[in-house]
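[job 4471] stage=fold_predict status=RUNNING
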Amino acid sequence: MIVRPKHERGNVNKQLNKPKKVVLAYSGGLDTSIIIPWLKENYQCEVIAMIGDVGQQEDLEAARKKALATGASTAYVEDLREEFVRDYIWPTLRAGAVYEHTYLLGTSMARPSSASAGGNRR
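[job 4471] inference complete, writing structure tokens
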């Protein structure tokens, strides 16, 4: 029988195998901005913010600066436009994937592209 230590809800300070470095797919929104200081406080790890440019026409330099201001050690913008169209948009269009028969799943298509880039390139 394996006996595992009990963890209190929300208490990550006692967890084993804490990461030393986290690459965060960063959008500049509330959720990803709040998680940077939380990760640093609870895991004592370095946080690198990767901002995926999938052609969303937002101020990505402002997002990069915001990531640094909220505590990321490094923040960079990765050009994922070609990969996004080739590997995500075209297959999704060919499959006819729409939400409630109304609109294409744009935001959800971009997440795997950003995650793949952050995990494979840093």
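[job 4471] summary: The first helix runs from residue 30 to 43.
[job 4471] exit 0
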